[in-house]
Design brief:
This protein is 24% helix and 17% strand. The chain is built from three helices and four strands. The protein has a four-stranded antiparallel beta sheet with strand order 1-2-3-4, with helices on one face.
Length: 119
């Protein structure tokens, strides 16, 4: 993840819009993965970015924060997948949330449009 960031740990200025789209996608995966306890696979609210047949896949990614510190993600529908390393300590690292005990965590069901607005 750090290869996306400048020496201050922020997104560099003046990059092509495709760069920022990729950073946004991967940072969402890191935020989701790092906010869950290690080695628990879950379905996220992040839709797949692939466009098989020029139509959005749109299936929500499954994500796991592996014990080796790598966040693994995949689309259960189209098979798109990836691994993100070197995310610890970045501005996208929400691992402090994962350390809360279950009595401090809350689950909320929202519509996808509401999620996009909150994000």
């Amino acid at each position: 993840m750090t290869h996306f960031l400048d020496e201050n740990g922020l997104a560099p200025m003046g990059m092509p819009k495709e760069f920022y789209a990729m950073l946004d996608y991967h940072s969402a995966v890191v935020k989701a993965g790092s906010s869950h306890p290690g080695n628990i696979q879950f379905t996220s609210a992040i839709p797949c970015r692939r466009r098989p047949g020029r139509k959005p896949c749109g299936t929500y990614l499954t994500i796991a924060n592996r014990p080796d510190g790598i966040i693994q993600w995949q689309c259960p529908n189209c098979g798109e997948q990836g691994f993100i390393s070197n995310w610890q300590g970045t501005i996208y690292d929400l691992s402090g949330v994962a350390e809360l005990d279950s009595s401090q965590r809350v689950s909320v069901m929202i519509k996808h449009d509401e999620y996009k607005l909150l994000r």
